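Late entry, evening session. Most of the bench is empty. Finally got around to the prediction I had been postponing all week. Sequence below, unchanged from the version circulated by S.P.
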Amino acid sequence: MTEHMRVSLDHCVKCTICESYCPVAGVTPLFPGPKYEGPQAERFRTGEYSVDASVDYCSGCGICTQVCPHGVKIAEINSQARAALKEERGIPLRDQVLARPTVAGRLATPVAPLVNLALRSRPLRAIAESTIGIHRDAPVPPYAGRTFQRWARRHEGPEATRSVVYFHACSTNYLDPGTGRHLVAVLEHNGFRVLIPEQDCCGLPLQSNGNFPAARHYVLRLARALAGYARAGYDIVATSTSCSLMLKREAIEILGLDDPDLTIVSEHVYDISEYLHDLYQRAELRTDFRSLPITVPYHAPCQQRGHGIGKPALDLLRLIPELEVQELDFDCCGVAGTYGLKKEKYDIAMTIGAPLFDAVRTSGADVTACDSETCRWQITHGSGVASVHPVTLLARAYGLVED
């Protein structure tokens, strides 16, 4: 455990606020709660210790850290305990597979139609559940077949006086290149040239699944790819709230990395809604939005709230004429990255997200908005209503995307 985490641990006064907010402990007895697994249990983990296996049922949503009145890094402590557990007992094949999205993406993209057919096959999904433990009903999106990087290499943007770097993350590259194109269109409409360097995974799935050595390797490699831009003064924007949080602070706090490239990158990373909202506050954002006479429920995902930036997407969407934005006041959709894909955790994830799914269905909306890609897949899966990144709605309102 890093010294920062140890100092945080000693601030716990056992008030149990984290317990009352924990979405996992509220629906299953398999997880005794963030206080018990975090600061309380950590005080007894010294030297050669055995970590309680129930810590693996922590979803890592981070809500406990957000609500702690004394600043205890509870979710981060639990993440480190999970890594110790996996180091001691080994990482299952299933977790190894789920934690390497770039490997899966590179293998699947050339044969995307066949892979997508397999993902839709109930018999094959049942076999995957019984053999490696990925739930047959888990929300697994189809591969695009054409990567965002391929599109970016052929895209010629307009002349611009200022530039920004786009960290697109794995999901945009292999699964949802449309969100990346929408971000580029919005930024170009606002006078930016968007730089899109070659990049790999940030290591977050590996960290979440307890493989810290591999996670450190991935995030440092990404930091090397982005550090030159940060040192040159470029801002770096991202559409993945969890991956950008990894670069902002999680790799430093949880993985204990003290690296100059990672540090400089962390100081220049922005969530795209955060960045656009900053532009708006400086009167530098174009507001030539056309009307969108639709109702859109908006869910702020756990990792987005972990940035501590408020809900900038909500403010941006309210700039669009005739767009009725409904803020959904629910803590978690349950999926937490790869957590809800696992056989033993799928039902927990769906139970956590059920109130959110019900609210989306009863809204009568045709589309919802959410900043996190895995949460969008979970919301669509649980509610039957399509979910998009807020930047897609901004692109539509600018007239840059066909309805």
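Two things to note before I forget:
The chain has a mean pLDDT of 93.
The beta strands are 162-167, 192-195, 236-238, 269-271, 295-299, 324-327, 367-370, 386-388.
Will write this up properly tomorrow.
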